[in-house]
Every structure is written in structure tokens, then in C-alpha cells.
Amino acid sequence: MARVDDTTSLASAEARISRDAARRLDVIFRSGAGIFSILVLLIAWEAFARSGKVTPFMLPPFSAVAQRIYADAVAGELWRNLGVTMFRALTGFVIATIGGVTLGAMMARNRFVRWFFDPIISVGFPMPKIAFLPIIILWLGLYDVSKISVVVFDAIFPVVTATLAGLAGVDRELIWSGRNMGASERELMWQVALPAALPQILTGLQVALPIALILAIIAEMAMGGYGLGGAMMSASRFADSRGVFAGIVEIAIVGYALIKAMALIRRRLLVWHQESAEQH
Amino acid sequence: MQAVMRAGLRYLPLVLLALAWEAVTRLNLVDTSALPPLSKVATAWIDLVRGGELIDNGKTSLYRGSVGLLLAVFGGGGLGLLMARWRLLDVFVNPLVELFYPLPKSALIPVTVLWLGFGDGSKILLIFLGCMIPVTIGAYNGARGSDHALVWSARSMGANRLRMMWDVILPSALPELLNGIRTALALAFILLVSSELIVSQQGFGYLIGYLGSTGSYEGMYAVALTVAFLGFAADRIYQLFIQWLLAWRE
After folding, report:
1. Is the pLDDT of residue A29 over 70?
2. What percent of chain A has pLDDT over 70?
3. B105/A contact by beta carbon, under 8 A
């Protein structure tokens, strides 16, 4: 009997190994294809820009854009603009996170708060709040406070709705058993309800982060000053197309890095959750 | 009657906000040049409609938005469906989709201006490029999740590729595809208004900026609220459309 068990487990182990190998091969193949596609894109860009079919104004070659980014980095201009943009986007994102989770939790707990904010959130979420940008400028001026407010004003909505939905979906029995064990309302919120709602809250944050970046860049473009968006806009005004394309590449890299970092944070924070078990 | 009462109670906070707005401005609790009374905003709105500015600029914006969005839906949806069915395309195009997905789409504004100038073309291109990716991802995920048994039975019944796409893959991809389009719709409004605000001589965004810079703040509030309302209404109407379209699933 034991022998049979051994052979079946051996067979299943072998099957698993070969499945793992196949998957690993697939991953290697896919990432190879990914690097290949990106290289092809860059080479096609370079070749098309140099072919004479477009003017260097319409599309400067990638090598010229890369040189420009390098020059900006050496001159320190790039780091200054990058720092300012990241500061605005991330400060806005953090304020939206704290404010959104707090408001969502208050709405989940208190009927009156919920009655008051529910229509505001459900009507406000789909609105293009960017239309209020000139009004925010009128109230708060053209500096950081105003740019960060633009970010918060947009990014807070997905956080509130995700927190609310997450808290509403928390298993009743978790709350009951917590209460039975003598947890206070505050402890219930911090130690039971919010951790249980964390996956959904993080999903809301993953929606809010790209919004924060988009809005920070729009605010910089509209209001001017330092920052990646402002630099792109002034390059565009001076018909400096290398500057514009350098901006696109820089912003693309920033966006990519931030979104990957957010996914990493999610995996870290949810190690205990079955979601991360399913990925293995 | 009871439903009306309930809806009234539900939206009462918005009415209260509007009343509070009117009250603080009437009682001079805030600077009325920065926050004009709601009633004056309403009068300004009527004037803008009568004068034709709101309608003319609105037509321009709606034209730009709807053409850009339609192109994104057909282009992005088609690409996503093809990627889900054709592995080679998937392997080579997916990395590019993943590369452009996190790009904050507003960064495309100066580039489209560089290519096509200040008019309709650059806004349409911007909305097309910006809104395509969420639609592609929705179509791709939806089509990849379609039931294998359905695909196999359709194939065994002799469906050709086109029929298979139209009768089997597309319907099963529809819920996620429609969700992707909803994201694209919201994004289209943001990109449209912001690009018009930053570089344009026409459209809602331009009108908001123009009225603001000439100091007619009542008008600026009126147009901003109109755009916000249109965005909200578009989303609600789209949701009703989804419900109607997906009624067969229940």
C-alpha cells in the first residue's frame, strides 16, 4: 500500500516538476518576446525618424531623445522636475488615501454620515472634476497647495468607494466573534474590519495612483512652473520637440515604476491573505 | 409616491449643499468674487445658452469626444479580441500594452499638439490613444475567459473564425469589454476637458478657461458644472445601456 502511495506521489511530483518547467519556459519565452517587442519598437522609432518621411520636429530619433534625457539628468534639471512631480502626486495620493479610508470607515459606521456623503460620492465619482481646475486656481493660486488639491479632489473618490465596499463585505461572523471576545468598537475597526477589507481598499488605491499621476501632470501643464508636466508644456511652447518626447519617455518610466511598486506593496501587505496563496 | 420620497431623501444632501452655497454667498460669509451665488450662476448659464457659446463649444467637444471614443472602442476592442485568439500577436503585442498601460495619459497632450496642432485632430488622436488601452485590456481579459466548452462545440459544429468571434467570443467577452469602455468613457472626459483647457481655441474646456481669465466667474462656474453634469449623466446612461445589453445573461 505504501509503495503504491509512493509511486503515485512520485508520479504526481514528476508531473508537477514538468509542469513547473513548462511554465518557467513559458515565462522565459514571454519575457524574451517582451524585450524583443520593446527593442523592435525603439528600432522602428529610430529608423522611421531617420528615414526622412517625417521631419525631426514631428518625431526626433530615439537616440536624440535619449541624449536629451541624459543631458537633463547631468544638468540636474531632470531630478528637480522629477522630484517636484513625484512630491505633488504622492502627497496628493497619501492625503487621498488617509482621507478616503477615514471617510469610508465613517460612512460604514455612522448612518448619518453615510446618508450625507453617499449621494455626493456617487454623483461626484463619475464627474470629470478636472473641469473645476480654474476654480481651484481661483481659490488656491498656482502653487503646490493648488496642484496637490487637484490630485486629492480626484483620487479620493475610488478610495472612499473601495473602503465602503470592502467594509460592507466583511464577514459578519468575524465582527461577531471579535465583539464576543470583548473587542471595543475601535479595536473592531482597526484589528478586524479594516484588515479584512484591505484587499479591496488596496484595489481602490491601485485605481487612485494612476489618477493621481495623470492629474498632477495636467495640473502642472495648466499652471506651469517646475515639474515634468510643466517642462513638457514649455518645451511644446518653444517648439522643442526633443524636450516633449524626452518628457513622454520620462513620464512613462515614472508611471511604470510606480505601478509596479504598488503591486509589490500589495503582495507584501497581503502575504497573510489567500489571494497571495493562489498565485503560487 | 414612496419611491419619489425615498429618492428625495436620498438626494437631499445635494439640495442642502446647494442651499448652503446660496446662503453663505448671500450672507457675505465668503468672498463673492471667488464664489458667486448659485442663483447668479444659473442666470449666467441661461445667458450662455441663449448667446450660443455653450451650445457651440459643447458641439465641438462632443464631436471630438465621441469620434475619439468610438475609434478607441473599435480599435482597442478589435485588438484585444484578436490578441486573445491569436497567440503570436498576444506574445508580441502584450508587452507593448503593458508598457503603455501605466503611462499617465495626460502626458500625450503636448505630443498630439505637436503632431496635429490645436484643432479637432489633436483632441481626437489624444482620446483615441488614451482610451484605447483600457478597452483592449477589457476585451482581452473577457475573451480569454470565454468558456472552452462553448468554443469547442462551436468549432465542432463547423463555425468559421469570423462566426466564432462574433457568436461566441464577443458575447462572452462583453461584460469585461463593457467595463473597459466605462473606464475609457471617464478617461475621455478628463482628457478632452484638460486638453481643451490647456491648448485650444474651442470646446468646453476652452470656454471654462476663457471665462475664468476674463473674470466672468459666474459663467465659469456654470460651464464647469455643466461639464461635470454631462460626465455624470454619460456614465449613468452608459450603465443603463449595459444593463439593457446584458439582460440576456440573467
Report:
1. yes
2. 92
3. yes
Residue A236 has pLDDT above 70, yes or no: yes
What is the C-alpha separation between A158 and A163, in angstroms, rounded?
A: 8
Dihedral sign computed on CA atoms, order A50, A56, A62, A65: positive
The confidence score (pLDDT) of residue B224 equals: 94
Indicate the residue type of B184: A
Interface confidence, given as ipTM, is 0.86
Q: Give the closest residue to A242 by CA, choosing from A63, A38, A52, A54.
A: A63
Interface contact B11, partner A, CB < 8 A? yes
Q: Is the CB of B106 less than 8 angstroms away from the CB of A221?
A: yes
Question: Does residue B111 sit at the A interface (CB-CB below 8 Å)?
Answer: yes
DSSP state of B69: H
Residues of A whose CB is below 8 A from B194: 130, 133, 218, 221-222
Over range A103-118, report the average pLDDT.
92
User: Is any Cβ of chain A less than 8 angstroms from the Cβ of B208?
Assistant: yes
Residues 6+ apart with CB under 8 A from A265: A202
pLDDT digits (tens, 9 = 90+) for A170-190: 888 888 888 888 888 888 888
For chain B, give every domain's residue range: 38-249
Q: Per-residue pLDDT tens for B13-32? A: 999 999 999 999 888 888 87
- CB distance A123–B102 less than 8 Å? no
* Cα A251 to chain centroid, rounded: 13
The set of residues, in sequence order, having a beta carbon less than 8 Å from that of A65 and lying 6+ positions away, is A242, A245, A246, A249
Pick from A126, A137, A221: CB nearest B109: A221
The answer, for B162 touching chain A at a CB cutoff of 8 Å, is no
pLDDT in tens, B195-214: 999 888 899 999 999 998 88
Decide if domain B38-249 falls under CATH 3.40.50.620. Answer: no
Give contacts of A36 with chain B, Cβ < 8 Å.
Answer: 92
Q: Which three cell numbers stand for residue B133?
A: 488601452
> What digits encode the pLDDT tens for the residues A138-173?
899 888 999 999 999 999 999 999 999 999 888 888
The H or E element that residue B141 is part of is helix B120-144
